[in-house]
Amino acid sequence: MDTSTFKNRYHNAPRAADFTIDQAWDTYSAAEHDRWDRLFRRQKDVTKGRACSVALKAMADLELSPSGIPDMGRLSDRLEAITGWRVVPVAELVPDEIFFDHLANRRFPAGAFIRPEAEFDYLQEPDIFHDIFGHVPMLADPVFADFMEAYGKGGQRAMRLGQLHNLARLYWYTVEFGLIRQDDGLRIYGAGILSSPQETVFALEDPSPNRVAFDLPRLMRTKYIIDDFQQTYFVIDSFEALLEACYKDFGNVYAEVKDEPNIEAHELIDGDTVIHRGTHAYFEKGGRRG
Ligand code: HBI
Ligand code: FE
Q1: Where are the domains of the chain?
Q2: Which CATH number fits the domain 3-289, given the four candidates 2.60.40.10, 2.60.120.1440, 1.10.800.10, 3.40.50.1460?
Q3: Do strands 86-90 and 274-276 pair parallel, antiparallel, or not at all (unpaired)?
Q4: Considering only CA atoms, which of 182, 177, 174 is closest in space to residue 195?
Q5: The model's pTM
Q6: Any idea which ligand is nearest the CA of 91?
Q7: What is the tens place of the pLDDT at every residue in 150-162?
Q8: Tens digit of pLDDT for each residue in 243-272?
Q9: How far is the CA of 53 from the centre of ligand 1 (A)?
């Protein structure tokens, strides 16, 4: 993924070799802290009964709250004590090899800028709210923390094998847009959903998208959308099952899917364990622009 030219408050900040910057926490304005608080309060409310229990528990353990933009160093001290992960400030999307190296070393690169008011409801760049409200709580779960480190190491290998597109799909349909089946029903663990008020409801309750049981080779063949809600969500039974499925050498999974055709984002195929067959009404009406 090439680094973005998205202009934000850190556009001219010096980057270290690993693309990290100084968060300069004391330079955030009252308006920026207030925007965090409004985003946090709304999302905290919408994720009640919809976020997975791991994420809800972690938010309390990490003391995430509507008390202004978190200082990543202090947040990292709490997170590191739980799973050894730290959150490091970056200004934008960093090159894939840098991203994977951070993950492989239990460092999560988090955008340090906060979305502009005009993009309060939806933005494509991962800002501090998406990264800290969406991704960081999951890193407090020991099993998911292991999965994310393994993903980083898998990414480094995938780049050497030229298999990055398959691995990016795994990240997309789990870390960003994954659902999990709990005893009390389907819940969200994907950061892209957890940090989006509209998609939090859509992903669980709208009849439009497919919901299909997680299957690694099938998922690696499935194309995804980056500028609208997903047309298919994959459902895992547990984080242990996800780690187990991904802990084997991806090499043979790449070999298995190499000659198989891609699957469109809205398609269901033979062999799918279909939890919900989507109506696709949302997309037939034109999606976000509909
Ligand atoms: N950089 N800061 C940042 N955050 C991401 O989520 C990210 C990235 N660089 C690459 C990347 N994600 C994706 O290409 C990976 O899924 C491969
Ligand atoms: Fe993300």
Answers
A1: 3-289
A2: 1.10.800.10
A3: unpaired
A4: 177
A5: 0.95
A6: 1
A7: 999 999 998 998 8
A8: 998 877 777 888 889 899 999 999 999 999
A9: 25
